[in-house]
Amino acid sequence: MLDSLYEKALKKKDEINERIENEFGDMKIDPSKWWKTSPINENDQDLTISGGDGSINQKKFLSFIYYAVDAECLIYNRQGLKKIEISETDIIPPHRYVRDRLRNYMGIFEIKNALKAFQQFNVDLFLFDGSILGNLIRPFPLENELQGEIKEEIKAKYYPKLEKAIMNVEVEITSSAMLNLIEKDFQDNKMESMIYLENLENLLAISKFLGQKERVVGISKTSTRSDYFGHEIPDMAIFDRFNKQQGYSKPKYLSVSKEVKRDFPILKDFFRNLTFTIFYARLEDYKNILKFELPYQASEDDIIKILEIIKSNSTEGYPYLLKKAHKDVIIRKIDLERLSKIIGFLEKSGREML
Description:
single chain, archaeoglobus fulgidus dsm 4304 fold, ten-stranded mixed sheet, two-stranded antiparallel ribbon, about 45% helix
């Protein structure tokens, strides 16, 4: 079967490449209006820079799903490199929200690591791996499937406990400690209620993180957004195709109240009043272009200062801390297999016959 696919690729390579050229050629877009080609200098100030990443993986058995999740936050200044890390492994009932739920766990770990770094190390700039705005746009699991009265009861009973816990800046899933109480109070909707509580914890952690404002930078290696050109081809691809030199795009400002159509179950005014600054930049000639997000309205001078700081802590045009954290946390399939053997699972996964 694969042989025929290789033959098909050889046969169609010229046709496909021609279509790619034509699609870019017919856009009638002038990226030069938005892009500024300019060398980015390095900032050698003695600053404390931090960055982190997380990872999840899972293995499905016949009656449960075994998962592993971890997150690491690196903190660097002239005194050296320090680390905050957290990990968890457990089983979870199979349901259609497992993927979202595990992503929530990883997100809570990543954000609480960052909050702990701010508290313990007085971080000047935190580099968040991915889109912060994307986390707000993405609907939470069960957002519209749990009755309003139940949601309000959960918020009244348990949200104050989440608020109290986050003030201690412990890196944990606080909701997990309330599982028995949730199961007792909401017997008919115990799974849905637990997931909703986890959603609230994630949103609360994000609010505390975004409250750091000028000390937060989101960095994405990929993006499908088209805020600049409104084209079906993403802005990132257009800028990348247009120029291979160092430089950055003029900023765009996105209001959460306009970008996020759903309602926020907590802290509505805080989130609705947020404005994000987005821009793209290439830190080194011919290296990858990156997308940046700032949870406040930044000027072009602000952007240049941030890029100079980030470049001084980058290798091959990408922040070193994010690169190292990603390599440190990645949970491979073979890692999950080894963890499964340590625990000694006897149940079949259903794939033994393949």
